[in-house]
Amino acid sequence: MADVSYLTLDGLNRLKNELAKMTGPEREEIAKRLRAAIDQGDLSENADYTSAKEDQSFLEGRIQEAERLLSNVVIIDNVTKNLEEVGIGDHITIQEGTYPVEKYHLVGPKEADPGNGRISLESPIGKALLGRKVGEEVLADTPGGSIRFTILKIE
Q: Do 64 and 92 fall within a single domain?
């Protein structure tokens, strides 16, 4: 069975659009480049052909990855919320000591963007948050060291 891909509805739509672009215009462009390079003759020392083949290989790998992700998607926007404890798709407000309050959206690894408040459920902080409740003090072991914070709100 394929691994589950946790995506927001927006993330699902972006991935579908990216796949359509890759399987359509991007694939066609590489095919044109390959035909042009083949028309030049001797392929053994043809840099355009080699470059196009490498790009084709990379693109096909990206297409396979996107198709794999789309094969078993769980839309986290549709997950039943239990606001008693932290779960995938929740928006969590936390505070570390006297530092400013921080808000995070707990998402799947493919949509993680910590700089924009989207943390992966597989990250050290995400793992530490899962199943915890408002008011709990949580300890997360991160690459930068252990951090201790309190869950203020689950939405």
A: no
Q: Mention every residue, 6+ apart, whose C-beta is less than 8 A from residue 68.
A: 2
2-24 pLDDT, tens digit per residue, is 588 889 999 999 999 999 999 99
Do 67 and 89 lie in one domain? The reply is no
Ranges of beta strands (E only) in the chain are 5-7, 73-75, 91-95, 102-107, 118-120, 137-142, 145-154
Provide the number of structural domains found in the chain: 2
pTM value is 0.75
Other Cβ atoms less than 10 A from the Cβ of 125: the count is 21
Contact (CB, 8 A) for 140 and 121: no
In the block, tokens 């392929």 appear at: 43
For residues 128 and 114, what is the distance between their CA atoms, to the nearest angstrom?
15
- The counts of H helices and E strands in the chain are 4, 7
In the structure, what pLDDT confidence band is assigned to residue 143 with cuts at 50, 70 and 90?
very high
